[in-house]
UniProtKB/TrEMBL annotation:
This is CO(2)-response secreted protease-like. InterPro entries: Peptidase_S8/S53_dom, Peptidase_S8/S53_dom_sf, Peptidase_S8_His-AS, Peptidase_S8_Ser-AS, Peptidase_S8_subtilisin-rel, Peptidases_S8_3, S8pro/Inhibitor_I9, S8pro/Inhibitor_I9_sf. PANTHER family: PROPROTEIN CONVERTASE SUBTILISIN/KEXIN. Residues 160-659 form the Peptidase S8/S53 domain. Keywords: Apoplast, Hydrolase, Membrane, Protease, Secreted, Serine protease, Signal, Transmembrane, Transmembrane helix. It comes from the Eukaryota. The keyword DNA-binding does not apply. The lineage of its organism: Eukaryota, Viridiplantae, Streptophyta, Embryophyta, Tracheophyta. It comes from Lithocarpus litseifolius.
Amino acid sequence: MRFVKVIFLIQQQRHREIYTIMKGNTIFILFCSLFVVSFLEDTGAAQAGTNYGVYIVYMGAAASTNGSLRDDHAQLMSSVLRRKENTLVHTYRHGFSGFAARISEEEARSIAQKPGVVSVFPDTQVELHTTRSWDFLKYQTSVKIDSKPNTGNESSSSVGSDTILGILDTGIWPESDSFNDKDMGPIPSRWKGTCVKADDFNSSNCNRKLIGARSYGDSVATAPAKLHTPRDTVGHGTHVASTAAGSTVASASYYGLAHGTAKGGSPSSRIAIYKVCASSGCRGSAILAAFDDAIADGVDVLSLSLGAPSYLRIDLKSDPIAIGAFHAVDHGIIVVCSAGNDGPDSESVVNIAPWILTVAASTIDRDFQSNVVLGGNKVIKGEGINFSPLKQSPEYPLIYAKYAKKSGANEAEARNCNPDSMDKNLIKGKIVVCNNVGDEDYSAREKISEVKGLGGIGIVLIDDQSSRVASTYGSFPATLIKSYDSAVVLSYINSSSNPVATILPTVAVTEYKPAPAIAYFSARGPSYDTMNILKAWPLALHNDVIYYFEQPITSYQTNMIVLQPDIAAPGVDILAAWIANDASQTPEGKEPPLYNVISGTSMACPHVSGVAATVKSQNPTWSPSGIKSAIMTTATQTNNMKAPITTDSGSIATPYDYGAGEVTTSGPLQPGLVYETSTTDYLNYLCYLGLDIDGIKAIAKTIPNDFACPKDSNSDYVSNINYPSIAISKFNGTASKNISRTVTNVGGDGKTVYAVSVDAPSGIVVKVIPDQLTFTKNNEKLSYQVIFSSSTATLLKEDVFGSITWTNGKFKVRSPFVVSSKSGDDDEYVL
């Protein structure tokens, strides 16, 4: 736990490489543990000590749906514009009110006090979180489902073609076959979006599949022209879009690997791209502008594979993703976000607002193996993607890096293949074995570069954590092995006078078991949110420090709000479309790839977005929370060995790892019952976070006439929001906890009876009242109570998990729960 005093000091965590994209000689880490919220001198975000920076002025709900400005919005923006030309960066008027502008710190403080202003905060930067996966998911479904429910005589593809999936990312490569519009009908008449023109993009790049493309550039006046085009120059957005809703493309592969048919989760859905990111990250002001436009354009689903670092606990009123998502959901749009790549640390999950569907990453049943063959033809399993030119027979000299230690160098550094630690004469012409276990100083890429630069012909990295995530190494023979296999390799080196080996080119192994497993990098729960933090807000950044200009609070506490992440989906070694001019991904003598294999929760998120779009197409009247419930309550918790899903380390996974479980593709189409989270539920959540009724009225579009914040807005109120999972904190073993839930019958059977079963952990008594729900018609709502008590009257030593499942013989509706004795007092930040 970190402690901060008066100012929040931003600390660098160790560099954790998830996946990389090579650009010339530069390696871009698209999501690591380094905080890039500022880039202050390069991007011109607000700084202390300078006259002007970019601030976001958030003013809550919009005046109407026609884009007209509220009077206070118009007046405030007019007063700002009169002071300086080119001040305005973005205006928000469709889904919510506000603007982003270049103003001084003093002006920001002054504006924050104006009537109608909810918050003012710097234009910070968040990060990108980075095909067989769909076939694998299809066979993971545990319930038999009608193939075409609720479609009548109309095919599912034609119904799905009216669903519009919006993606906030790095743009798109429109020429990819994954975005062809073959056999698609006319664009839905309700679509109000556009395809913007740029030097390398025009309206002809859009079609009946890609129906919209917008770009938001950067809040910096000197931003390069490539930021002002929807065209993707990174690859991330193209990959995400094709995973979510790409058209069916036969014979797709990464240079022959993972060969097969590529398709998105909802191949008949339309795609709308909102380019808010560059390789360096994504501006909050652009994210809000994209949300605002997407609401007006008419999208049905929004997918965001991006978020803040886990160790920055952003206040809700200054979180652009939470703010934008709140208003999108309020307009009937389901918002799906990646959970982040800061795992396996606990409490690392981001995008935790309860109106967001938050996605963790898992493996699929495909493994990219590049094996090592030792002298005597002993084969050691390796992981990685390379196109090794070495011979199949083990005839190349093999050396352990510590034996190539440079004179005067540290042995530990040499063993790790750190720069300037090895003797070139001892490395040249050899395959080098390097330790990469527990080394936080240099990445695998840097070690490969060092060995290659010294004349090495291949590298074997010992790495337990990354061994199930295949990085791409081009033509250079590189592979990862586990520690227990390294003992065999090192024993062979030490016992042989002339050790030799070879590294085989990668092969794709399918039906790999066990799968899925939760990826090591996938962010973990529990999700904690803050209470009583809205007395102060950040108004400036300088030298990696956030300054608070209001009276600082003395302390704030954290409490478990909801059980997150919500769901897991494939996010490891995912094949999808790529930009066609990326020579950095090209092995020697090859053309740039049209499809690429990368990993991250960025890749997991669009899998769930695609499922959400399919559910929306089959059930167009369902609310965002109903769709979210359908996805969560039909998830699976077993792998392809019919055993419990594990983490990549082999331990049994818990809801802190995967939420409700692994998403299925057909189960959410017919969930039987759904939990619909009401406006009042979300308003109670805002009360719990510390907003008063005036602040809530400014944010929410509609509020029940009799609504008021509870006098004692504690965590019990939040546990009672009608969420598909249950989280109980401050469970002291003496007092019971009473939780209520309401379900809606959407099974289509009219009269039906559901009976409950409970899987309770040792020491916890869980009673459900009533234990049967008798529905008399479709869409009927019934409520039940869950009473949690202790059988031992002692404090829990650790968080415990269980589930409540309702079934009528046809459908199973499962809700996971967690019970924790922890309270905010156990996790306190001192300001």
